[in-house]
Amino acid sequence: MTAPLLEVSHLRVEFPTRRGTLLALDDISFSIAPGEILGVVGESGAGKSLTGAAIIGLLDPPGRIAAGEIRLAGRRIDNLPYEQLRRIRGREIGAVFQDPLTSLNPLYTVGRQLVETITTHLDLTASQARARAIELLAATGIPAPEARVDHFPHQFSGGMRQRVVIALALAANPKLIVADEPTTALDVSIQAQIITLLKKICREQGAAVMLVTHDMGVIAETCDRVAVMYAGRVAEIGPVADVIHRPAHPYTVGLMGSIPAMDEDRERLLQIDGAMPRLTAIPPGCAFNPRCPRVVERCRAERPELAQVGATNAACWRPVTVEAVR
Amino acid sequence: MAADAPSNPTAGPSTLRRLLDGDVWHSFRSSPVAMLAALIALVCFVCALFAEVVAPHNPFDLATLELLDSLKPPSWVDGGEPKYLLGTDGQGRDILSALMYGARISLLVGIASVLLSLLIGVSLGLLAGFVGGRTDAVIMRICDVMLSFPSILVALMISGVGRSLFPHAPDMLALVVLVLAIALTGWVQYARTVRGSTLVERNKEYVQAARVIGVGPLRIMRRHVLPNVLGPVLVLATIQIASAIITEATLSFLGVGVPATSPSLGTLIRNGNDYLFSGEWWITAWPSLTLVLITLSVNLLGDWLRDALNPRLR
Amino acid sequence: MLVFILRRLVQALVVMLSVAFIAFMLFQYVGDPVTNLLGQDATEEQRTALRKDLGLDRPFPVQFAHFATNAAQGEFGISLRQGRKVSALIVERFPATLELALVAGLIALGLGIPLGVYAALRRGKASAQLLMTGTLFGVSLPNFVIGIVLIWVFAVELKWLPSFGRGEVVTFGAWTSGLLTRDGLLHLILPAFTLSAFQLTLIMRLVRAEMLEVLRTDYIRFARARGLTDRSVYFGHALKNTLVPVITITGLQLGSLIAFAIITEQVFQWPGMGLLFIQAVQFADIPVMAAYLCLISLIFVVINLGVDLLYFAVDPRLRVEGKAH
Asked: Does the pTM exceed 0.80?
């Protein structure tokens, strides 16, 4: 068993506000192996993007890491001084954000932005950096890269721009990519292309990916493992096929059940009653207990830890252990 | 839904009252700066309004002036007298009293021009927004052109033209021209804001419904559009009062503002400037300080009002 | 882009014509145009000749065309107050105002931009708060009060700087410059700082606001996520994006400076166009007023055009016409 590339242990992220301290991430733990693609899925507000931000060290103030550890290749990175963290960003951890339209500086050419990133982290001459920039553009599937390297962002279409963003994220050859909803802002037809690209190029470079998304379809296509987040906690984590076909946590069950299938004949879409609680109103015990069909007294009193159930780990007192849901 | 909006008689005032009763007042009480600014503004306003009663002397009553008392420094300086708290000017006028009368003129002209500005701007804005089409285009073009000219220039031109047309005008007329000149420099902001709001409201369903029933455009504008623009217009007006006062002071300082018989703070500063080099600094210092205090407090109030009425910051 | 330039030129022409029209109305109907052109000491024959010459009995558009062509050549008649040709007066006074406005503009930019950037980057710290409070003063203090205070401190009390006039000037042909002599420069200091004060605070507030906006954008976040140095992020990316909208505003401010110079020139008795204009207003000297109006409008129009072109040069989004692919 190889040592994990990224290890997040008992991470807590807080937002001190005038009305009190909001707990946005409550005791999150997971790991990513080198070269692995981990999906992080959940509703809006579940804390997926925050987890990504915490790992890169770009939590928007006043948010801060209150407890826990983040280790990259065994080394702690959550408590590093700013300058050291800056060196890790881009060089060891790359990031891809949601909106390609606003991710690129409109006033600089794509080439300049690439070269800048390359020369910040790698010791290359200007012409070497430019050559590498063109290589990267080619690798991400941009036609005529020698010409397009001198184009401005507004001259690229949405899908092309996201390719540029991916090129930028991989420019300094990081070992981990944090991709926060990389396809949500794109046309459906382009989404598949970008996801395929991301998967291929990361495999080629040997980079691990933390893919944050709310789209289960993307997760199913791309990821090796998946973590399901709910109200700032990890509800379930495990290999993708197992989480999808044999989910143990009632929330995951509900999630999978609510996805309409082509081969089923249904009149109404299934949904989970109620809504995810707001950060200020998380119930004691298991956060899911008000909506859970399998709730017992213990759920309301004690918060469950992640425990092995079948092939996955679920944080539940009464996990589902029955055979395939679908 | 469309039925109760137009027929609700308190749709207009209750918005305003709601604002005043709730968050705005609370925001006021919790902002020491706003309270201080309001206090200063209030004191200046009261002194100006009741100058005859509050001022220790009457600087315009030639009979009470003593030439022997001229150029006396403030009372705490050597040579000063407690009778003339802030000193006297070249004619023996008490500076403190002159200040109050001067402030009154400044405030009068400032507020009058803002009101006129408001009237012109809001009417034109409503017209542009409601009628649309060519009227709208023409009005907006005029706005653009006016905005690109600095206000002082517009005021000076109008003042200059007024002087040429009526070279021996009575004071009242001169004041009217002045107020008009300043008013014409500031109406554009109101017009734009009101036009924007009118356009938004005009497209709402209840307005369209009202038009179908046959409610006249004036009534619609008054009942539905006006209450919604009151907030931003109020903020604009407060900030504009400060700039109107400054414009008037500038014009008076330049010698083309208020007539000499009713000196404003600007005139006082101008007169006092001549004595600066001979060491009688107080003649120009006190009016300057008063002017700055008034504009500063009005600006602070305007700033606070804008933040208090801004829904995004709540 | 050519289409754009043409369109703007046409707009500029329309504005100039409208301004010429207003000036024309002033000339004809406020006061006597014959007196405006000949001065008050003209004889009766001269007047009748001019009346015929001017075609005051001719239709309105013809008179306007006549006026406009004269105006385009700078011919505005004789100043009622000074009895000299208006064009000569303007040419004489223009350098003084221009130098004052340019130096004030440089001060406003040179101090305003760095201070604004500082206030944005050190947001929340005491020094930044102090700066922002200072700008409130800058906006509330009228131009002439600042001038008077500066005169009192530096000229009356400390006696370091002169407060009256231009000092020694050097002449090249039609141009007189105070920038080349120490005396001239000393005289320039107080008026330039007075004139720049308002613009300075404006620029500072603008730069700070823009910079704060820019620092919240996704591309800045992405730049940080790529591990770029603070220097790159703030001065390579954020600053450039901040300055693009700032350029328009500050460009337009130059015209505003020339106009506000009126006040500063009065305070310091600076022999420029502004002082000339004020004296014209006090005296109801129509020809000078009309000429000043036209000149100022021309300056504004030219500056506006220049700023638009500058935008093209700076923002690549406006340049390339091709479709995104």
From this structure: no
